Amino acid sequence: MRALRRLPDYWDLILVDTPPTLGYLSLAPLVASDHIVIPVEAHALALPGVASVIASIERARWHVNPGIELVGIIACRVNPTSHVRDVVAQLRARFGAVVLEHSVRDAIRIAEAPALCLPITRYAPMSVVANDYSAVAAELLDRLGDLSST
User: Fold this and answer.
1) Domain CATH for 47
2) Residue 1 is assigned to a structural domain of this protein
């Protein structure tokens, strides 16, 4: 929180990417953040983790950060299998409109880009995955509205 407070008022949006566990490094951003986005692998084993993160957000809202808001849940590593379709349908049934309309498909390019320290939109800008991330970003920005006034 101290590090974020020391930043100049230059940015409208700062993304904090945390580990997929609920340890200290994941809980601190719940105190310092205004908005939360939960990426979830489109696999049945990941579904309990989403509920756990949402419970942590609720605890943070109750105890330390009453203004924190869940902006969206993003289905990731989506592929054209019936299992993935079922998992995405379960996400939508359980969490409703908070699940983004756009998702991110599974592709090897996602694993290759970090090795070159490049975002997917620069590593493979014409790929379907880069388009997926762009669509997700646009949907999130639409949900967030005008950030310049906050």
Assistant:
1) 3.40.50.300
2) no
Tell me how many domains the chain contains: 1
- CA atoms of 37 and 101, how far apart (whole Å): 14
**Residue 140 near residue 37 (C-beta atoms within 8 A):** yes
Distance (Å) of CA 110 to CA 16, 31, 82, 131: 19, 29, 22, 12
- Within-domain flag for 76: yes
- Domain membership of residue 48 as a residue range: 30-144
Residue 94 clears pLDDT 90, i.e. is over it: yes
CB-based burial, 76-85: b 16+ in 10 Å, e otherwise: bbbeeeeebe
Residues 101 and 139: beta-carbon distance below 8 Å: yes
- Mean pLDDT over 97-110 rounds to 95
